[in-house]
Amino acid sequence: MIKAFFSRPGSKKEIQESLSKDIKDADERILIAMGYFSDKEMKKILQNSNATDKRIIHNYNDTAKLKIKNFESTILGKEWDRKSNLKENICKGSSMHHKFIVIDDIVWMGSYNFTSAAQECNWESMIRIESKELSMQFRSEFEYMWLFSNLNVSLNGNSCKFCGDIVQNPSNHYRIEFKVEINEQEEVTGYFFLVSCNVFNNGKEGGEFPNWCNLCNNETEESIFVVEKGPKSIGYTVFCNNCFRIKLLSYKEQLLKYKNGK
Prior knowledge:
This protein is α+β, with helices and mostly antiparallel strands. The protein folds into 2 domains: 149 residues, Endonuclease Chain A (Endonuclease, Chain A), CATH 3.30.870; 103 residues, no CATH class. It is built from 7 helices and 14 strands. The strands form 3 sheets. An 8-stranded mixed sheet has the order 1-8-7-6-2-3-4-5, sandwiched between helices. A 4-stranded mixed sheet has the order 12-11-13-14. A two-stranded antiparallel ribbon has the order 9-10. Strand 11 and strand 12 form a beta hairpin.
């Protein structure tokens, strides 16, 4: 089911009212990628949600970046370098310019930011789509942005800081490895990310790397390479972003249990 909603100058809150109902009814997830977020009224609505997975990706250039109780948050983007003289590269920085929300299997997308200007002053639109297939696509992109924001991989605009090349697609340009340290009792004692540039390492973008998730058995462009290193053996597994998040939660629980047992 697809339905369009509009916001116009005035006091009527057509988008917020309909969106609020979905937020209230959310059970599994609320995933927000919002360019600008300063609407304190929307903040209160979100804080009352009972969804299990609640996360938001803020735009680096958003000065407000409202903190929402019971929501995990991260920041994606890079400050604009207005003094840059790289004439061949029009991207002097980057913004996380999305405006989409995934609520269970519902996707909201359009021009509407979570700001009072969007709510009361601007001419805005949002489309509400109920589709499990589409929500999975947006969830996959959200997971990649979430992971990328936490890896501290600096893109100089749209250029790679490792090789200096213009990046066609970060998911193909970078190789992401997750190293897990395991002791003789097969307990997780630590882990860390390792990010490398495929161009720098292999002389060409891409490379011959597995692109099949070992958990869900689906083909994926955004592969995470998990390496479990212990005294007995080294295990190597490939996960898609969605499955990796599930696996990461398991590692976090195991590491916490190990630290508490010390």
